[in-house]
Amino acid sequence: MNNRKTILFVDGYNVLNAWPELKLILEDDFEGAREKLNDYMHEYASYYGEEVYVVYDAYLTNAKKAHVESYGHLHVVYTKENQTADSYIERQVKLLSEDVRIMIKVATSDWVQQRQILGSGGIRLTPWELKDKCARIRRKIEHRHRMAEEAASKEPSGHQSLRNLDKLLEIRKNN
Fold first, then answer.
1. What is the per-residue pLDDT for 109?
2. Residue 106 contacts residue 117 (beta carbons within 8 Å)
3. Phi, psi of 89 (to 5 degrees)
4. Which domains does the chain have, with CATH numbers?
5. Residues of 46-75 as b/e, b for ≥16 C-beta within 10 angstroms?
6. pTM reported for the whole predicted model
């Protein structure tokens, strides 16, 4: 049985600039582009059960320490003043790589950072590999949704209402 925890670090602006559809959004709506990437990473984290840290440079701000917002398995990090996403990720990888129970992945196109990650025993993902994984997750979710809709449309209306009630109760219980 594998008890290793997997943590994925994503160099936020690096990935935003590598994915054409996100880069296009980034040109007009900085916050909207980050939210879109965060949505993709939330799906990734939920699907794979991995901890995901999306790290954004706050290099030119006056924040004295990094700010982290957590949403389940997704953690959005804004670095502190004079700190790049690269340096934040490198420091975290160095700290975590000492624990053999943790598998570390990093998504970046930065070749120097990729080499350092590999040298620390981590796994590197290019932004394009990450995009492909996210697209596959999206297709699987959409397929399951279609299958559920088809199954629900074949049920007698009374059964469908009870199933919808069960779903609502489950959502309420989890919130």
1. 87
2. yes
3. -65, -45
4. 5-133 (3.40.50.1010)
5. bbeebbbbbbbbbeeeeeeeeeeeeeebbb
6. 0.80
